[in-house]
Amino acid sequence: MVTFSRREIYKLKKKIEMAGNHLCSVVYGSLPPETRTKQATMFNDEASDLNVLVASDAIGMGLNLNISRIIFSTLKKFDGICTRELTVPEIKQIAGRAGRYGSKFPVGEVTCLDAEDLPLLHSSLKSPSPIIERAGLFPTFDLLSVYSRLHGTDFLHPILERFLDKAKLSPDYFIADCEDMLKVAAIVDELPLALHDKYVFCQSPVDVRDDISTQGLTQKIMQRKAQFGLKKYLHLEHCGCLQHTINSRSLNRFTRS
């Protein structure tokens, strides 16, 4: 069962399990990678009672799953800016998780919970995938380091802003969205860190809309700095913990070494 918000995932899970016939695994993007893998493993295990997976589009991102049927609860998602219909590639990527060569189910099925969504599903599956004409590029540390030397500053936020403003690319490329990176850069610029360490932390999976997460990032950086010095910072790139509520998830995200 596929839906596109954490709240809806747990709502569907509860509804399915209350019917009494099935138990559910859950997978969504903000779960730590090891937790997603564990949930997927339990779903794949024939001896497990967890025979339904309720998930976001994270199921299309690097998980090996034995799925016989995909059911879209909706074909709309909030993309951080607005609620929109799924694109053809998004629908195909998710639908393609049902029935895969080499899996337990070589042939799969896909449908929608709401009959009104079926025309869009059918037309998307029949449509050719659009040709990707441009590729997104992300600013590397080497490029930002050059900017740092040119402008005589180790503050990452203004360096990144200048780079994004001045960078010129061929028509085949575009600069990837760096909005979250800019927000984290503004946070780490207030800490006594070298430029490279700031850049590393800007790659961390921090929810910049969550005050608890951003405060946790700052606290964890200073704890590691006091305990190990700068050389250990790379180990924090994928910190995270499984949550049971929204707040405990935010609080626990930075408690692991």
From TrEMBL:
Has UniProt tagged this entry with the keyword Mitochondrion? Answer: yes
Q: Which GO terms describe its biological process?
A: mitochondrial RNA 3'-end processing
Please verify whether the record's keywords include Transmembrane helix: no
Alphabetized CDD domains for the sequence: SF2_C_suv3 (cd18805)
Of the GO CC terms on this record, one is: mitochondrial degradosome
- Which keywords are on file for this protein? ATP-binding, Helicase, Hydrolase, Mitochondrion, Mitochondrion nucleoid, Nucleotide-binding, Nucleus
SMART domains cross-referenced by the UniProt entry? HELICc
What name does this protein carry? Helicase C-terminal domain-containing protein
Q: Upper lineage ranks? A: Eukaryota, Viridiplantae, Streptophyta, Embryophyta, Tracheophyta
